[in-house]
Every structure is written in C-alpha cells, then in structure tokens.
Write a structure and sequence with these properties.
mainly alpha
C-alpha cells in the first residue's frame, strides 16, 4: 500500500509537473500573443507615419500649386502692365498725331494769311494798273 502511495504520489507529482509545463506553455503563448499585438501596434504606427508622410507630400503639392498660381497671377499682372504700356503708347501716338494736325492747321493758316497778304499786294497793284490804263483811255 505504501508503495502504491509512493507511486500515486509520483503520478500526482508528474501531473503537477505536466500542469506546470502546460501553464508555462500558456504563459509563453500569451507572451507570444503580446508580441504579435505589439508588432501589430508597431505596424499600425508605421502605417500612420506613412499616411502622415503622404499628407506632408500632399501639402507640398498643394503649396507648389499655390506657388504656381501666384506665378500665373504675377504673369497676368505683368501682362496687364504691358497692355497698359501699349495703351499709353497709343495715347502718346494719338497726341503726336493731334500735334501734327495742329501744326498742319497752323501751316495752312499761315499759307492762308500769306495769300491774304499777297492779295492785299496784288489788288492795289491791279487798281493802280487800272488807273494807269484808265488815264490813257480817259485822259484827265
């Protein structure tokens, strides 16, 4: 009976050792699962970091678009300044044309006054010539 008790005690101790090994395996499995969870969290962090970097890249693209829009608006502004210069040049040329017309009018006026002066010289000559010839026809 005593040997049977020793054998049973050995069987019980073997069961306790096996139970300890099973619990150790469960503990290692839980540590392994914790490692898998931590690896998943690390991968989630990497994914969020890549999404954040993608956001930074998109922000850079948006800022590049804003810079290009600013350059386009600067070009439009310079074009409008150039068109304003063309309009001002047209106004200056119109002023030159009007000045030429005014000078042409002054020149024509001076020619007309010269004609009036010449007419004033010719008419007394004609009158004097008429008087001269009239003195031959009708002697006084």
């Amino acid at each position: 009976v005593m040997l049977l008790g020793v054998v049973l005690m050995g069987v019980v101790l073997l069961g306790v050792v096996l139970l300890g090994l099973i619990l150790l395996g469960v503990m290692l499995l839980s540590v392994m699962l914790l490692g898998v969870v931590l690896l998943g969290l690390i991968l989630l962090g990497v994914m969020l970091l890549s999404v954040m970097l993608l956001g930074v890249v998109l922000l850079g693209v948006i800022l590049l678009g804003v810079v290009l829009l600013g350059l386009i608006l600067l070009g439009v502004m310079l074009l409008s300044v150039m068109l304003l210069g063309v309009v001002l040049m047209g106004v200056v040329l119109l002023g030159v044309v009007l000045l030429g017309l005014i000078l042409l009018g002054v020149m024509l006026l001076s020619v007309m006054l010269l004609g009036v002066v010449l007419l004033g010289v010719i008419l007394p000559g004609v009158v004097l010539l008429g008087v001269y010839f009239a003195s031959y026809i009708y002697p006084v």
